[in-house]
Write the structure tokens for this entry.
Amino acid sequence: MASVRGFLLDIDGTLLDSNDAHARAWEEALREQGFPAEFGRIRKLIGMGSDKVVPLLTGLAAESPRAEQLKARRGEFFRTELLPRLRPFPNARQLLEELGRRGVQRVAATSASKDDLGALLEQAGVSDLMDATVSHDDVDRSKPDPDIVATALDKARLRPDEAVVVGDTPYDVAAARRAGVRSIAVRSGGWGDDDLRGAVAVFDDVAALCARLNDVLGELTRVG
């Protein structure tokens, strides 16, 4: 039975209460570029990267000039207007500190862009606690494809059975499954238990996970 040596952690909706803000940024950028889209439709796509979101909402090729302009505007609006007001979920930092005390690697594994990644970690107050990071810019395909999870495993030198993905969306659960990694889901991103089916455990938020961390690590090892 392999012990858990690494947590591959999503950021948006998991460590930082930012999913609505990302949806608002896409909504604003789309409106400015002549692609009106309903907030509710956009919100359901948060957790995917721009390589998925742009084609689904606009029909544009993800790397087309107009798509690049749209992505740049979204990022600018998010980082300047919305990000400074966001707050981490309770005990997000405590969870990472507890993992570090137990010798468990902490890897940020996100569909966010490289430009957003550093800013998100700073706003969540955990940038100094990550042992490695993987963003959308490090891979060809964002979640729910497995590329981000697979790259995180490589960076941390972990086997799939030595790691667990922690995320808040069905895309996190699917990416983990496709990479052969177990996942723990949190409801803090706005998804329900039916949406998060496939995770080995579902918690309200990272505070609830942190409170049960010893039990979770023990159970993951027993069934590993």
